[in-house]
């Protein structure tokens, strides 16, 4: 990799390097390498704490995140920790093929196969197998999928799980099965469709596809999770309309609809996704649920929004590319913890309670993590409403945040049957071309073509208009110009169609940069938001503990730095 001058703007692969620090260093070396689950950064001293999510859920999320972050960044630090995570993950399986929570010496958590954990487990095994082709991983995954199918209660047209936990020997309540009392179908069945579908695509596992078919049918036709108008069922039995599990289920259904070419399923997702957006801010803050946790944003929910929006955009609803880009530029990356000057911790382990809690070097160990529960304007949520302050970090959100970076990064540039599309105006390198983004400083994108492209198109933000969009194409010392004022330059509403591009060509696209103000609503709260293009540059009222957005430095000319982009001939696609 040769360093050159590139715009010093948002680079998602750099953010992946940062998150690797947290993924690796939250491992508890005094407790078998088990990662801490949560952290409270507002306390003095701050502390990390174990939880009953430590096992299949946390290990699954982190193994998946390590695969994705290493693929984006090329960084190999912490391989010994990663190996410990992987061996731990495999050790949680029992002979029945399910992943079980373990005993903790300081608590009374009971060993069980939690159904939310199983989703993280098959997610990790799929990414792990995609990256390595390790046969022992596939054997574990095949056995796991077979178990997920075996324990499902099977009706004529739908399958489901009648409880949140499976115990060795069977479901705890036969009465629940007889009465079809399936708890939270979105959390325990709907979200499972996403990794199961990918596992089928990678391996051809028929059990995985069958689970996808019957779980999807159950969610859409029988569950009651989503109301007829697309809204979330907010009854207590449905977890008060919990956003992460609902939008995660929409992500799964969208992928299944795209895979099966089921337009009705895509439309089902779109209706509910559009409703969900009315509860979120344009920059990506989401509620936790519709009642008790309404003020607590999980990075997990935002990443579900990102993934679902990408699949809808790939399905032809191209307007969602701009929705997702705002999420990537704003609340996802703003929620990544890089400045910890405000956190107070301990330089020794004198206050640690091994197996339960640690105050030791918390700030350094969580640097790069994503927010567990944030406010629209603050990393820490400490409002008078809802549950007040609970925790600031959760391992699930670290894993999800990494996946959000990956989903954005892997869809900046896409190729399909000779057509190369630039979907997000973010910098990255690829085998076809390099994208140099000067946003939000300047309305300018520079493309360096690395190999011949049959058809090239670039999405232009709707706020940039048409008439003043210009493209200057330089090759072998000659420059020719194209204008967005020409109607023939546009396809699929927002894409500038540039035709064929030659190796060695440099294409500079310029357009007016928008400056606007919006009023964003978040569960009864209002925020005055200043935008520069798709980036929030000021938010009022300002946060208190670790404010968001208002420390972004903006210049009229993009700063430059020496560096280069990561380019891969073979990429992972999720």
Automatic annotation (TrEMBL):
One of its GO terms (biological process) is carbohydrate metabolic process. It comes from the Bacteria. It comes from Paenibacillus rigui. InterPro entries: 6-hairpin_glycosidase_sf (IPR008928). This is Uncharacterized protein.
């Amino acid at each position: 990799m040769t360093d050159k001058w590139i715009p010093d703007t948002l680079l998602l692969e750099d953010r992946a390097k940062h998150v690797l620090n947290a993924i690796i260093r939250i491992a508890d070396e005094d407790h078998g390498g088990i990662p801490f689950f949560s952290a409270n950064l507002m306390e003095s001293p701050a502390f990390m704490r174990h939880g009953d999510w430590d096992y299949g859920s946390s290990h699954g999320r982190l193994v998946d995140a390590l695969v994705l972050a290493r693929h984006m960044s090329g960084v190999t630090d912490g391989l010994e920790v990663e190996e410990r995570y992987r061996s731990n993950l495999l050790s949680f399986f029992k002979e029945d093929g399910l992943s079980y929570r373990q005993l903790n010496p300081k608590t009374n958590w009971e060993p069980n196969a939690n159904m939310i954990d199983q989703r993280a487990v098959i997610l990790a095994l799929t990414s792990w197998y995609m990256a390595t082709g390790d046969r022992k991983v596939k054997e574990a995954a095949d056995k796991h999928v077979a178990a997920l199918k075996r324990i499902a209660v099977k009706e004529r047209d739908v399958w489901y799980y009648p409880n949140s936990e499976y115990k060795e020997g069977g479901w705890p309540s036969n009465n629940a099965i007889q009465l079809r009392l399936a708890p939270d179908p979105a959390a325990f069945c709907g979200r499972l469709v996403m990794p199961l579908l990918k596992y089928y695509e990678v391996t051809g596992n028929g059990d995985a596809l069958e689970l996808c078919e019957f779980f999807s049918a159950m969610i859409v036709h029988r569950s009651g999770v989503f109301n007829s108008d697309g809204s979330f069922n907010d009854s207590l039995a449905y977890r008060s309309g919990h956003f992460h599990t609902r939008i995660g289920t929409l992500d799964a259904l969208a992928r299944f609809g795209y895979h099966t070419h089921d337009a009705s399923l895509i439309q089902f997702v779109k209706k509910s996704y559009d409703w969900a957006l009315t509860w979120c801010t344009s920059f990506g803050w989401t509620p936790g649920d519709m009642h008790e946790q309404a003020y607590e944003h999980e990075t997990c929910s935002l990443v579900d929004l990102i993934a679902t929006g990408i699949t809808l955009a790939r399905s032809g609803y191209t307007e969602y590319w701009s929705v997702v880009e705002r999420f990537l530029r704003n609340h996802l990356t703003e929620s990544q913890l890089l400045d910890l000057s405000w956190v107070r911790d301990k330089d020794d382990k004198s206050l640690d309670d091994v197996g339960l809690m640690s105050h030791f070097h918390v700030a350094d160990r969580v640097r790069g993590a994503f927010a567990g529960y944030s406010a629209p304007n603050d990393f820490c949520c400490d409002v008078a409403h809802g549950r007040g302050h609970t925790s600031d970090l959760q391992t699930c959100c670290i894993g999800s945040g990494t996946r959000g970076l990956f989903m954005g990064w892997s869809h900046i540039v896409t190729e399909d049957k000779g057509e190369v599309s630039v979907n997000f105006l973010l910098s990255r390198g690829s085998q076809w071309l390099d994208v140099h983004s000067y946003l939000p400083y300047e309305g300018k994108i520079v493309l360096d073509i690395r190999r011949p492209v049959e058809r090239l198109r670039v999405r232009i933000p709707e706020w940039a208009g048409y008439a003043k969009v210009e493209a200057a194409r330089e090759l072998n010392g000659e420059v020719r110009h194209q204008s967005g004022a020409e109607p023939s330059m546009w396809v699929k509403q927002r894409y500038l169609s540039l035709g064929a591009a030659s190796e060695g060509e440099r294409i500079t696209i310029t357009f007016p940069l928008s400056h606007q103000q919006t009023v964003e609503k978040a569960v009864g709260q209002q925020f005055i938001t200043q935008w520069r293009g798709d980036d929030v540059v000021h938010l009022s009222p300002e946060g208190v503990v670790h404010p968001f957005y208002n420390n972004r430095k903006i210049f009229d000319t993009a700063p430059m730095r020496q560096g280069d982009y990561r380019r891969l001939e073979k990429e992972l696609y999720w």
